[in-house]
Write a structure and sequence with these properties.
single chain, mainly alpha, 6 helices
């Protein structure tokens, strides 16, 4: 039951990331930072892609992926369409990975050390949903604040 709930939450919030990126009036503003905002919506989106493709797609779904975390924050001006494709592909990989996840895996120790100590797979997946929601909120705020003030 939890994998189905997680699938719905990840799909919902990744679709919302897609909506946010689409709603920017000016594509350049996706990459804009100012006023004490450390990360652009584009970099937050790349970070979510790297995070979810690594911890869910690769580790739980067996979908090959090599993460370059430093590029998630340093890469700039990826065309909006390419960014949308990356997020949509991630949404589908996460969904497929969780669809095949057996309930027994949830109680098992997650294979990678992500935090200071090992956690269950269930704990990590719940953490990843809150991590996604946190950055979705930042993207929404970034769009509403900076896209309205873009030249």
């Amino acid at each position: 039951m939890l994998p189905d709930t997680l699938r719905l939450l990840f799909r919902r919030d990744l679709n919302r990331v897609l909506q946010e990126l689409t709603q920017y009036r000016d594509e350049e503003t996706i990459w804009h930072v100012e006023k004490g905002i450390a990360n652009s919506a584009g970099n937050l989106s790349l970070h979510l892609v790297g995070n979810l493709r690594t911890y869910i797609g690769a580790e739980l779904g067996g979908v090959a992926y090599t993460r370059h975390r430093e590029l998630e924050f340093s890469l700039k001006n990826v065309p909006r369409q390419e960014l949308l494709e990356k997020v949509a592909e991630t949404r589908d990989i996460v969904d497929a990975s969780l669809r095949t996840l057996s309930p027994e895996v949830l109680t098992q120790e997650y294979p990678l050390l992500v935090f200071e100590q090992k956690t269950s797979t269930e704990y990590l997946l719940v953490h990843l949903t809150t991590h996604l929601a946190y950055h979705l909120g930042q993207i929404n705020y970034h769009r509403r604040l900076l896209d309205l003030t873009a030249p």
